[in-house]
Amino acid sequence: MRTRDFSRAPAPARADALVVVERPGAGAAWVRATRRAARAADGHVWSVGLRARDGAGAVRGRVVCFATVAHAQRFTAGLDLARDRVRTFCADPDGYANGVWRAEGDVMAHVERFSPTSSERAQGRLPPSVAPAPPRRDRRARTPGPASSPAPVAGARGTPARAGAMFLGATRYRGPHSWAVLAREWYPMVAAMRRMTGYVWHRVYWEPPFTLGTLAFFTDRDALVVFARIPAHRRLMTWITRDRRHGTGGYIRVHLADAGRPGEVP
Questions:
Q1: Average pLDDT in the 47-66 region?
Q2: pLDDT band at 153 (very low <50, low <70, confident <90, very high)
Q3: Can you list the pairs that 102-108 forms with residues at least 24 positions away whose Cβ atoms lie under 8 Å?
Q4: Could you give the CA distance from residue 256 to residue 75 in angstroms, rounded to a whole number?
Q5: Alpha helices in the chain (DSSP H)
Q6: Mapping DSSP to helix (H, G, I), strand (E, B) and coil, where does residue 93 land?
């Protein structure tokens, strides 16, 4: 369900800004120092480490959520912009919350229509309805069709600091049995996402006892929106929101890169 009120959702959902800081070839000392600096920063809400690869080799860093954009800006001002890759992302006011994490009412349901792409918004066209997805055995369901795919983007692989959009979300599951059922839909969805033009990087995180969350980075918002429309993602979302047998809450926040920050990755 769409919402702007994340007061009942976990702390990361309430963050208005997110900073990615990463360094190629970073050692353990830099990783520890960056983790300490992030946690001690004013407005720190939540953070998690990252490991990625690009043409320069291994890259390590941290994704840090802040209460406000001003807090994020103060944190980035203290970073070594000559050596670190830094990018600030600002949260879109509109997001999604379900079940026990929904402030407007304890409801588990999926949205009726997808979020619009930039071309749909510019042309005033309604985005398509969230129609039932084809079964997994249909090989045509593996990737988005030509009509819904964004144009190829240069550098569609890389590290989070070079992305233009990302989503941060989580689902509270009932227990290990729900995770086992989830795996049937999760792995095909991740495989389809990694094949997409516009996919950059993702990681999964765990919060006790049974919450699993995802950070996923894309070249731009349109690539993120197209990911939401692939059949594998539609199957997963309709499965978890149809009742409370496997999950009791969930949220998704979309963050867009603030390309105007001086000294950050262009």
A1: 94
A2: very low
A3: 102/1, 102/3, 102/8, 102/249, 103/3, 103/5, 103/6, 103/7, 103/8, 103/9, 104/1, 104/3, 104/5, 107/1, 108/240, 108/241, 108/242, 108/243, 108/244, 108/247, 108/248
A4: 18
A5: 28-40, 69-77, 118-123, 176-195, 221-229, 231-241
A6: coil
